[in-house]
Structures are given as C-alpha cells and as structure tokens.
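ok so for the tutorial part 2 we go from a plain amino acid sequence to predicted structure tokens. step 1 is just haveing the sequence, like this:
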Amino acid sequence: MRFLKSFYIHNSFFWYIAILSACFVFSFWFTVLYPIAWLLTMLLAALFFFDCYLLYATEGIFANRHLPQKLSNSDLNPIAIEFETRYPFKTFISIIDELPVQFQKRDFEYSSSLLKGEKQVFDYTVRPVDRGEYVFGNLNIFASSPLKIVKRRYIFQNDQMVPVYPSIIQMQQYDFLAISNRLSEIGLKKIRRIGHTQEFEQIKEYVPGDDFRTINWKATAKQQHLMVNQYQDERSQPIYSILDTGRVMKMPFNELKLLDYAINATLAFSNVALKRNDKTGMISFSKNIETFVPAIQKLTHLNTIMEKLYNITTEFTDSDFGLLYAHIKRKVTHRSLLLLYTNFEHISALKRQLPFLMAIAKKHVLVVIFFENTELEQLIATDAEDIQTIYHKTIAEKFSLEKKLMQKELQKHGIQTILTKPNELTINTINKYLEIKARGLI
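step 2 — the prediction. this is what the tokens look like for a chain of 442 residues:
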C-alpha cells in the first residue's frame, strides 16, 4: 500500500501510449508498422520497469518547509522550502504544498530540475487576512527521472500549525524609527512643538521651527551660532486603545475587516508609546467589556497586549457605549489619552452615543477614530454617464458629507477625531499621538 500511494504515472507516459496507438492504427494500412509498433511496446514496457527501479532503488529526495513561529496578519509572510536530490541522475520535481484552508488556494505548484546532489530553495509568500491557527498540510514532492514515465511521491511535514497574530511586521516597521525619533521618515508629518515641560534634555543647534524662547544665549555666544535648550516630553502617561468589536467593525476593506486594521494599529502604536516611555493599556467592548489590560510601562507588557489582540473577534451586536463609560469611570482613575477605534455610518448613530463620548471626554483626552468609506470616494471620483450613475454619485456624496459632519460635530464638543482610510490608520494614529504629546494636552 505504501508503494501504491507513492506511485504515479507521468503525463509523458500517456503521450507515449498515444504514439503507440497511432502506430497500431496506421499499421492497418501500412503493415510494415505492425512489428515496429510491437517492438516499441516492448521497449516502453522495459523502460517502464527500469524507471520504477531508478526511482525506488533509493530514497532520493529530501525536503524541509521553513515556517516562522508566527505569521503576521495582512502582511506578505515569507516561507521557504529547501529540497535536495541524492539520485545519481538529473531529477525533475514538482512541489505541491498543501496551504491552510483559509487561503482557499488549490493550484499551488512549483516545478524544477536538480542535478546529482544539488540543493535548492524555493521561496514564496502568503498573506493571511484572519487571525487564528493556520495548519499547513503535506509538503508533496513528485520526482521523475529523465525518462519521465513514472513519478514517485514524497511526503514531508504533515500538519504544521502556525498562529496568525496581529501585524508584527507593521509593528517592527515602526519600532526602530520610534527609538531613533525618525517617525517622520515614513510619511508621518512633523508636528511643531507648541509647549514643553521643564525637564531639560540637551543643548542643540537651532533649526527653523524651534521655540525662540528656548535659546541658550551663553551657549550661543560660545559657539558663534544659535543654540537652544531641548526639553523632554512628560513621560509615563497612561494611554488606552479602546476597540469597538460590534457589528460596525465587520465592514471589509481589501479583504480585511475594519477591526483587524484597528488591531494592527493598536499593536504598532502600543509599541511606539512604550518605546517613548508611556504607559499603554487596552480595552475591547461590544455588549460587554471583553478585555481590559491596565496601562503599564514595561516593554514586556507588549506581549500581553499582543496575546489579548490575538483572541479578539467581532460581534454581530450593537456596542454599549454607556457600559464603556461606566467601566472607564470605575477602572481608569487617572487622566489618560483614550484612542477609541469605532465606526459611524450615519450621523444619527453618532448622536445616540454622543452623550457618553462627551462624558468620557470631560475627564480624559478622547480621540475618536472612525473610517472613510473608500468605495464611496471611488464612486464620487468617477464621471457620471447616465441617470442611474448620477443618483448613485449623489447618494455617495451625501454619505461622504455625513462623515465630515460627524467629525465637525465631535470637534465642536472638544473631542479629538481622526477620519481616515483603513490603510492609513496606523500612520494617522501615531500622528495624532505625537501632536497631542507636543501640545501637552495630557
């Protein structure tokens, strides 16, 4: 049974059979072909058994699939397959990797050829769009000799499980830049400093945009050019990322739910805040308070946040903002920066929750983050060519205007807002954080 499970006929064999069949058919008219056809048949039979001997005389193929310990959600994750041959002849191989069912890809195949004793590495990428456990099935390698009559199937590494976590790659992208204060290099706008604390850090050369009130005249006289005192931002301030896991966050964008964008942004932002010595925590809620992680200033605290984010799922219910207000009032006792990731499609939905948001904003610095509907923006940008398209554009412009009105309504009540495209969420969130820190609002 083991032999039968590994034994396959090569596609070329059927071409050989077709040629033999044609010879027998034409021998009806050309009798000289009849003995030639039988001679070719016996030769093919001999080569068939010889090919089986070549492939099964020894274990000739060895392969290994290299998977990372964790896959990063919404990112291209590299996977490597290393393989080698120990056959004493040129080997033709076909690799079929059984990808996790979440990818819904059933046409994965890679073909190559190996010389005697040669090693090769095949790299490919996968992009998961859901968090959870991903199980890779068999790594199948079909080997054939230069005769290409039969194929032998090799199976390696069955059922390898890899968890898919929030975007670790995105978090690492901002990690080094956060340490070196170079966040503006990846498109984050530079925030002009409006105020500062009195914690002295260093004396540096004056650059346009520095507060002229911080000029150090003694150092300026010594160096013969303007020098200014630089002050540190106040540190160890509590910051909470609040995730709405209700049905409004199930809306998809580029195969990813809005909640997953918020989760990826929370992880990247928490890492940046911790590197800048602030305390970070997290709350997720819908009908109930599902997760509460108190704000702590430890780099190891990021692992706790990551594990909590890994297990968050969206619900199909409306979220209870009144419950959120009560929980914050009870558990978050110090003035904090609260980043609320949610979404409002209609201004009436915002007005229902506005009293609770205003109550939260009285004690804390609240930033409400919600999303632009990018499909509507694309529809608005297209030219209208008929009456139906005009109707669609008019309705789309109405919904787009409502988003801007909601932003104005929140700002009117002293609530900070971010209206962003899903793919720009992380950048805009860190921008707002830097702006609030520079302005000394917390």
